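Practice problem 4.
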């Protein structure tokens, strides 16, 4: 979604704030992953120190080993889902634009529309499947942290719905705001490369 368009109205400001919050959550999650993973490594090495596990600090760390592993997994899962939403918004996912760069503008629009429709269909399947699994596991919890399994699978619904909205917004920008496919597809970062390609 175009940040220039987002900032032009009140709704856009709320969207911008929402994505800033997501970036903060991802940063905190990454920090937690690093801390928990490092502490697990530390615990494994300190196990070889005679009498270490019998100390108060050592016994506490030993009890945290299982929880640390699960916390790191939870952080990684949320990081992937939320990061995918931000990447989709900024058009930062891996892409191959070789074909689009070499076809006329009208064909570019057709291909871009097809791409967005495919994304919406696949994300709809993802959201429906994730919701089905989430509801089946609504009473299940992870062993060490007692984190609800539902909260893991529901992120698939969040990702699917978010990407559908982003795709709809991209199509809106294409047909209503008349933005070029090159800007939509690359986020405006590589428009010079597109302009350098002669299409007859």
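Answer key:
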């Amino acid at each position: 979604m175009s940040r220039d368009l987002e900032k032009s109205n009140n709704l856009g400001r709320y969207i911008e704030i929402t994505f800033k919050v997501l970036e903060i959550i991802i940063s905190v999650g990454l920090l937690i992953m690093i801390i928990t993973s490092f502490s697990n490594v530390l615990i494994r090495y300190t196990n070889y120190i005679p009498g270490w596990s019998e100390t108060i600090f050592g016994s506490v760390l030993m009890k945290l080993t299982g929880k640390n592993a699960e916390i790191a997994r939870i952080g990684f899962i949320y990081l992937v889902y939320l990061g995918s939403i931000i990447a989709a918004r900024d058009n930062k996912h891996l892409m191959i634009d070789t074909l689009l760069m070499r076809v006329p503008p009208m064909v570019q629009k057709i291909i871009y529309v097809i791409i967005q429709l495919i994304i919406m269909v696949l994300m709809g399947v993802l959201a429906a499947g994730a919701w089905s699994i989430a509801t089946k596991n609504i009473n299940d919890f992870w062993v060490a942290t007692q984190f609800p399994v539902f909260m893991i699978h529901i992120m698939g619904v969040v990702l699917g719905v978010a990407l559908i909205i982003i795709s709809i917004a991209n199509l809106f920008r294409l047909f209503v705001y008349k933005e070029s496919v090159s800007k939509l597809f690359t986020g405006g970062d590589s428009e010079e490369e597109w302009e350098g390609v002669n299409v007859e």
